[in-house]
Design brief:
alpha/beta, Beta-lactamase, five-stranded antiparallel sheet, 24 strands, 31% helix
Length: 559
Amino acid sequence: MKTTCAAALAAAIFLVYPSISTAQKHAGAKQQASKKARRQEKPSKLAAQIEAVLSQPAVARAHWGIKVTSMDGRAIYSLNEGQLFQPASNTKIFTTATALALLGPQTTFTTKVIAKGTFSSPGRLAGDVVLVGAGDANLSGRSIPYVPPAMRPKVAPGQEPSPGPAALRYLEEMADQVAKTGLKVVNGDIVGDDTLYPWEPYPQDWAIDDTVWGYGAPISALTINDSQLTMTITPGSAPGVPASVMLDPIAPYYTVDMSALTTGPARSGNHLQIERSVGSKVLRVYGSIAVDSSPEEEEIAIQDPAEYAAAALKSMLEARGILVTGIARAKHRISSDDRGFLQASREAIPNMDWSRTYPPAAPASACTGNCGAVPERVLAQHISQPLIEDMVVTNKVSQNLHAEMFLHNVGAAVLGDGSTVNGARVVRAFLTSRAGVDPDDFVFFDGSGLSGHDLVAPRATVRLLQFASTQSWFADWKRTLPIGGEDGSLVARFGGSSMKDRVFAKTGTLSEARALSGYIDCASGRTVIFSIMVSAHTPGSSADRIAMDRIVELIGAAE
């Protein structure tokens, strides 16, 4: 009897415990299912919200690509992530990341003035004075480091802003150094030498009409004032009176044809055109500017930056009492590379050490002592600001020429030749071998994104952004990105939304393509990576930009 009771009790205990265990399992399973549902709910809700934005008639006909991940690469949302889009200035993300990783943030570039010839007496040179470009993008009046708009000095109403540093200040400083050497006569030419890069002023598929303007300035290892001049067009005193044109900085370079430029009646508006034929140094300005109009300013590209630099230096030396018997001219190096661009840019770089940084390449003409048949002597030099400070400028304001110079400088440093294709080859090798980007997910023909041949998949951009976040140089590089509502090309975006100061991203605009890629500090406190690209949007419309910004806000709120 006792045995039977004990057995029954044991059986009862046995029956109870399994039922408790099963209940716990069910509860645990429910909890896990709930967590999974919550994890799935966010992307589903976010997907529905994004779909609603993209279904609006103003943007529904455009082609969209989106990729969003966590910082560790976990997928959050995607749409056409593997399809190719024109990245426009999102290309600068790839160029600047490669340059920072391989050249290092503190790298500098040294521009030199060299006497190339013999001195018949201490002050008389039988030979040329050569200004040797070393890839410094900031021989200009630009203030560096970059200062966000909110931190710049305020200008009182009615007051004119104080003028910044002179555009040719560093060239003036080098001219002063030359004068202090005691040089009095140059029986030769003043030469602008940009042979660090082959003379390839325009990458493939840059639009012909872009070459007139500052944003399409030609690429040269000897770049003065961003290879551009400011043209100011001012109306005359009365309708019918010729208008005036001024170029700044003033140097003997362009001729301006104003024969068809006039002053129009009050309130007639401005109807101005500026043209320059390829290879020409004649600017034709025509049309009308209203008599009551404020002066109009345009940035005009310098057709041959090395020649312009030589002309400006010649004038400065003459102003300091130095007689120059020759002319101002450029020294270019013409490329003899007969490889096709796509084939050459895909060539592997054997024995590449991705863990090291590379010193900038020294121009062949920048040596001292007897460098061949003609003796050389350094008369003056200028050392650039650290590379990272120029990179902040480049990404904040989306400076095309500087991005191209980063591309050429990595080609020169790594491969010993600063050609466009060598720069693209280094970028491709870095992205595929080091950053883990799929080689079929991008094609770059330049460093700025101005080429219409450039193509990138959103997932390639996100992959690079995720890789960059794991690198020792990430903090330096992230601070180069525009901040929503705060500075750079995002200063006028997100300012009135919850995303102000929480979006760190590179913009991109080219014809009917637009892009925005970077990092979002979300409402939850987490940071996510995103890339949004659109092609074939309606010309002249900003609806795609408004939709893009709304999607960023939705991502920030959902995550």
